[in-house]
Amino acid sequence: MPELLGPALVQEAAPATHLEEVRNRAAGCTRCDLYKNATQTVFGEGPKTADLVFVGEQPGDKEDLAGRPFVGPAGKLLDRCFEEAGIERAKCYLTNAVKHFKFEPRGKRRIHAKPSRGEVEICAWWLAAELRLIRPKLVVALGATAAYALLGPKAKVSRDRGVVLRSSAGLAVFITMHPSALLRMLKQPDGQKEIARFVDDLKSAAAFVDR
Ligand code: URA
After folding, report:
1. Lower CB density within 10 Å: C or N end of the chain?
2. Which numbered atom of ligand 1 lies nearest the CA of 146?
């Protein structure tokens, strides 16, 4: 298991043997303060036999309310790109580095706040448990927070994007953009090019597990 996930595994006194068990334990997680303001834990979703695991940053507003990962605007864009890349979402496991929504209230709105490194490190406990049970062929880190959770501080999205990296413990990790960043880029002139590049990344990830 990779650097950050190693300690999380060691600390697990009685490792869960089924994903459902991990999900139930995570539902009551109070390991950091983020549970206090979030509606619920948003655990990963998908088959436990998935070859491909996608890891995002943290649930957003819609995910927090629905209790499911990637169901909001970023998830809709990801679905569209999955389709273009020929990836069936139902065959993949989707999760997040941090399992509670971190936000700042602004009037009636809840504005996304970036999780701290400490929060990511604490939550790596759950990600490690998911990956230990799924044992995917490839884990796709969507953006810098996921890359940090999976590979530690040395990983850089701009430099390491689009190739399969091996964590020190042998987990295959592929870094690409986060769909929320793509949503922001869509407003810029090169937005469509960036989407096409992301779809190419997804195709490379799919080809790696299919070979
Ligand atoms: N962004 C994420 O990183 N994860 C989600 O589940 C939704 C948006």
Report:
1. C
2. 3
From the CA of 79, how far away is ligand 1's center (Å)? 12
Distance of CA 100 to the CA centre of its chain: 12
Q: What is the CATH number of the domain that holds 188?
A: 3.40.470.10
Instruction: Encode pLDDT of 189-206 as tens digits.
Output: 999 999 999 999 999 999
Compute the distance between CA of residue 122 and CA of residue 100 in angstroms, rounded to an integer.
12
> For the whole prediction, is pTM greater than 0.90?
yes
Ligand 1 atom nearest the C-alpha of 42 is 6
Ligand 1 within 6 A of CB of 45: no
Q: What's the CA-to-centroid distance between 28 and ligand 1, angstroms?
A: 20
* CA 63 – CA 101 distance, rounded (Å): 8
* Distance of alpha carbon 102 from alpha carbon 60, whole angstroms: 8
